[in-house]
Amino acid sequence: MPHISYWIAYGIPTVILLVALVYGASRAGSFTRRERRELDANARMAERRDDPLKH
After folding, report:
1. 3-12 as b/e, with b when 16 or more CB fall inside 10 Å?
2. pLDDT by residue (tens digit) across 9-41?
3. Which of 14, 19, 33, 44 qualifies as a FRET site for 5, CA 20 to 30 Å off?
4. What does the domain layout of the chain look like in residue ranges?
């Protein structure tokens, strides 16, 4: 039964790698709520610093 050992040696790790890559690609570029809140606060502070008459 060489096909079973081939599946264990190559198939299962390939599936695990593909799942990890799909998960990582889906999470790439997205921020958590905390990160988004910090980013928005930093952007507001930078706007006030750069153009104080605007606010």
Report:
1. eeeeeeeeee
2. 899 999 999 999 999 999 898 888 999 999 999
3. 19
4. 30-55
Q: How many CA atoms lie within 13 A of 43 on its CB side?
A: 6
Q: Distance between CA 21 and CA 14 in Å, rounded? A: 10
Q: Which residues contact 11 (CB under 8 A, 6 or more apart)?
A: none
In one letter, which amino acid is 25?
A
Q: Are 48 and 55 in contact (CB under 8 A)?
A: yes
Q: What is the chain's percent helix, strand, coil content, to nearest 5?
A: 85, 0, 15
Evaluate whether 39 touches 31 at the Cβ level (below 8 Å). Answer: yes
